[in-house]
């Protein structure tokens, strides 16, 4: 990767000549890894989803954006709107680093409705001349014509006493008529924490205090928190940094997970079960939730992680968002299913029914690069089943299921080009119940695997060659009886 100087990273898009941007765009458009039904950056680097809301009949989905290359530089918010969370209209940057408070990045934040208007609350990232970080929390209001007016100064000017300047990512929520913001923080002992603020008028925000959880020593920073009620439970999400890997758990550089429990907002006590990762694949971070037009809780994440080099970096772009997922809690467990409306993308249905055994079988007459594949496991006597996707003569992306351990393992070691600085080639998870169903979304350079109707999700980027289109099934020993349903998907968002 070319080394970017600080000047290059903090160059504003407005100061770059048109020719540079056109060249970059041309290079990005030529990439063989461009996605077809995922939100991806026009150029440069995409990270966290921001400002997700259904407001007056329209969905707003923004993302963190550094336009000029595949590095974490000066961040903007790039905005899309949608009528159905399936097709999206791009609108370009909606929040720009144009005040002294956000001069070094419009960092992550959320959207909310107040007095009939759409507002954003986000973190202003500022560096002083000694490159010390100053984080403040800002508010911006969207005018009728879609333009943005920032409040003249931050509504929370700095972190409270006892915390460092790693203080960011406000997620606003409303209970009765009061607005609250949950914030990511780091205490002076360099431990991750969550802070809660409240307001009655959105201008004056009062610190209620630190949320008391059962986690005291759990990483040095908890980024991108979220809080919501779901099916009678309180749920908190956060992204801890600095956890050690623990067998199959916490294998990525940073984690992203949830805790289910009971939150007493008066005493700020969150009595919760253990922290569980939201996704067991290689590439998932910084998700945010909101409610759709039916009041259903929806989650969208960043299908990427910081500090990893991806094969598309060379092409001037990196990352994408995940498909939206519907969240529910069933029998006390969080379930994540693909957003129902994505069914609109389906065409060319193909099905196959049959046995597979240890001799690699082509159960199915199809192949592809962008599709949804539903595999129903009807009978299984196999010790291990291997589903291979995006296969060519030399590459294969493997999902293995071991019956005895009840474990799903995703293996991308032979899947094509690989991201650098990633530990290990596989990610595994033990299911709650024997494997009955896989619902897999494959796009040009990604795979999202939903196991057992929302029980587990594994999301990963893959970078196979263009001829890697095969689908194969085999077993170690024994046989498996399967029903395959495949739909081609295409959207070009
Ligand atoms: C998470 C994060 C956030 C921050 C943003 C900056 O990926 O580090 O904590 O607001 O990215 O781009």
Automatic annotation (TrEMBL):
Protein keywords: Carbohydrate metabolism, Cytoplasm, Glycosidase, Hydrolase
Main location: cytoplasm
Nucleus among keywords: no
Catalyses which reaction(s): Hydrolysis of terminal non-reducing beta-D-fructofuranoside residues in beta-D-fructofuranosides
Glycosyl hydrolase family 32 C-terminal domain boundaries: 342-480
Pfam families: Glyco_hydro_32C, Glyco_hydro_32N
Compartments it resides in: Cytoplasm
Annotated signal sequence range: none
Entry GO MF terms: beta-fructofuranosidase activity
Family: Belongs to the glycosyl hydrolase 32 family.
Job description of the protein: Enables the bacterium to metabolize sucrose as a sole carbon source.
Listed name of the protein: Sucrose-6-phosphate hydrolase
Species: Staphylococcus simiae CCM 7213 = CCUG 51256
């Amino acid at each position: 990767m070319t080394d970017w100087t600080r000047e290059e990273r903090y160059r504003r898009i407005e100061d770059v000549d048109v020719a540079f941007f056109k060249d970059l765009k041309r290079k990005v458009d030529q990439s063989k890894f461009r996605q077809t039904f995922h939100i991806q950056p026009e150029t440069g680097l995409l990270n966290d989803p921001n400002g997700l809301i259904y407001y007056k009949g329209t969905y707003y989905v923004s993302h963190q954006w550094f336009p000029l290359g595949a590095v974490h530089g000066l961040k903007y918010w790039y905005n899309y709107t949608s009528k159905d969370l399936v097709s999206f209209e791009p609108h370009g940057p909606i929040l720009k680093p144009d005040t002294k408070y956000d001069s070094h990045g419009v960092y992550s934040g959320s959207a909310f409705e107040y007095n009939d208007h759409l507002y954003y609350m986000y973190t202003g990232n500022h560096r002083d001349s000694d490159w010390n970080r100053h984080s403040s929390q800002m508010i911006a209001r969207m005018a009728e014509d879609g333009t943005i007016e920032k409040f003249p100064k931050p509504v929370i000017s700095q972190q409270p006493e006892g915390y460092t300047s790693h203080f960011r990512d406000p997620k606003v929520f409303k209970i009765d008529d009061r607005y609250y913001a949950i914030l990511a923080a780091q205490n002076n002992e360099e431990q991750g924490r969550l802070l809660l603020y409240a307001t009655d008028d959105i201008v004056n925000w009062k610190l209620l205090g630190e949320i008391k959880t059962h986690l005291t020593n759990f990483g040095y920073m908890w980024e991108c928190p979220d809080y919501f009620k779901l099916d009678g439970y309180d749920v908190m999400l956060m992204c801890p940094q600095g956890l050690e890997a623990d067998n199959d758990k916490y294998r990525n550089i940073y984690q992203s997970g949830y805790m289910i429990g009971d939150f007493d907002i008066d005493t700020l006590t969150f009595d919760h079960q253990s922290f569980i990762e939201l996704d067991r694949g290689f590439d998932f971070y910084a998700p945010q939730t909101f409610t759709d037009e039916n009041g259903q809780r929806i989650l969208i994440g960043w299908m990427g992680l910081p500090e990893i080099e991806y094969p598309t970096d060379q092409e001037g772009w990196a990352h994408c968002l995940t498909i939206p997922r519907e969240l529910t809690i069933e029998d006390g467990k969080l379930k994540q299913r693909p957003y129902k409306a994505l069914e609109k993308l389906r065409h060319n249905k193909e099905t196959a029914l049959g046995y597979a055994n240890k001799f690699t079988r082509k159960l199915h007459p199809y192949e592809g690069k962008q599709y949804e594949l539903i595999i129903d496991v009807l009978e299984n006597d196999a010790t291990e089943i291997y589903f291979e996707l995006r296969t060519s003569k030399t590459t294969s992306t493997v999902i293995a299921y071991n019956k005895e351990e009840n474990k799903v393992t995703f293996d991308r070691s032979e899947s094509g080009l690989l991201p650098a600085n990633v530990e290990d080639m596989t990610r595994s998870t033990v299911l709650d119940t024997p494997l009955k169903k896989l619902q897999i979304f494959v796009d040009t350079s990604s795979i999202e695997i939903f196991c057992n109707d929302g029980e587990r999700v594994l999301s990963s980027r893959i970078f196979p060659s263009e001829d890697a289109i095969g689908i194969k099934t085999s077993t170690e020993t024994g046989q498996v009886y399967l029903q395959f349903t495949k739909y081609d998907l295409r959207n070009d968002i």
